[in-house]
Amino acid sequence: MKVNITTLLLVFSFLVLNGCSKATTPQQADIAVFEQFLSENPISSINPSIDIASIYRPGDPLFKAVLGIQRKRLDIAEKELTPLAKNKQPEAMFWLAKVIYRSGINDKAKAYDLLRVSAESYPYSAMALSSNDEQCQMYFPSKCSKEWTKKARNLFAEQAKTGDVRAVYYSTILKPDLTHEQYINAIINAAKNHYYYPLVEYSNLIINEKNPDKDMENIAVKLLNYARYQNFVPAIESLMDYEGKYDRTNSKLFNQLIEQGMTVGSNAAWKGYQLYSYKSSSLSDTQKYISAKATKYFNGDDFTISITHPPKDKEALISANKKAQEKADSVKKVIYIDGAHPRVFY
């Protein structure tokens, strides 16, 4: 199974945000810089900490809402966000606008109004109104503007003074005179402070080339492994895509990535799990049903539930559903999306 949709869309999102400029184009000279970074920050096994890269933690006001968006439970997200948005909480207004996009509600004006108001103080809303933003161009292109990019940069610069790693990164790369050296240093600084999206996006630009340079490809894979050892889901999914690119979906590593991804809430890993379970000749009908039901419990994906065969006996069905629920409940509640990457493509 080749699962390269997420990686390609992450690359596209990066190009939309930053443009395909010389400053952000991977270069051979980067190899030595990243090799030094990796040698100074060695990691070769999975970190026992599962939320080191999370922007929200359990107990935060927006945790349930953003987790709902990540797991495609927009009903939960909307319920949590609506009262906060009514109180003009900028961050909640931003996420509610994203729920409106994702839920298919044809209410562009409401989404724009939420972003427009919150963009005065929340940099991700301002960035979402930039002329470079994909959704802005799709839903209300006449209202997208480079002025919002400038606004976002200024807001990020103020936020960066507090040490916010994301704000430091975006206040840097949104500069109109960004140099390649500044870009690479910004990626490394972000990774050192547990923000791995920039590192993953850089690596994806390389591994998704049709015929990537082998040395560049090798460093990209090393960087992705560095992030996946920190349980960063987009890195796990990019490596799944990479293995699939070479038809290595039966490899030991691919299976490890599926297992790790499922543990920390990767929708792609769960999709792979339910498909492999359904196709497996070694699993019973009940086991296939449990995998399909567990996926539905986890993120609402019912792709295989209608083509599996639940136990006919009532007690057996209750038992199977219980096992499925327990498997879904075992997934760690870790958030990996953020204001610059609010979408989940699986």
**What is the arithmetic mean of pLDDT?**
92
Portion in beta strands: under 5%
Helical content (DSSP H or I, runs of 4+): 55-70%
Q: How many helical stretches?
A: 18
Query: Unreliable segments (pLDDT under 50, ≥5 consecutive)?
Result: none
Biggest sheet record? none
Class by SSE composition: mainly alpha
The dominant shape is globular
Distance between the termini: 14 Å
Write the element-wise H/E pattern from the N-terminal end onward: HHHHHHHHHHHHHHHHHH
Number of strands: 0
Radius of gyration: 21 Å
Helix and strand layout, with pairings?
Elements: H1 5-18, H2 30-40, H3 63-70, H4 74-86, H5 90-103, H6 108-118, H7 123-128, H8 134-139, H9 146-160, H10 165-173, H11 180-192, H12 197-207, H13 214-228, H14 233-245, H15 252-263, H16 267-279, H17 285-299, H18 314-329
Helix pairs in contact: 1-12, 2-13, 3-4, 4-5, 5-6, 9-10, 10-11, 11-12, 12-13, 12-14, 13-14, 14-15, 15-16, 16-17, 17-18
Task: Give a short summary of the structure.
With 346 residues, the chain is mainly alpha-helical.
Explain how this protein is built:
This protein is mainly α and 346 residues long. Among the domains are: 157 residues, no CATH class; 65 residues, no CATH class. It is 62% helix and 0% strand. The chain contains 18 helices and no strands. The two termini are 14 Å apart. The mean pLDDT is 92.
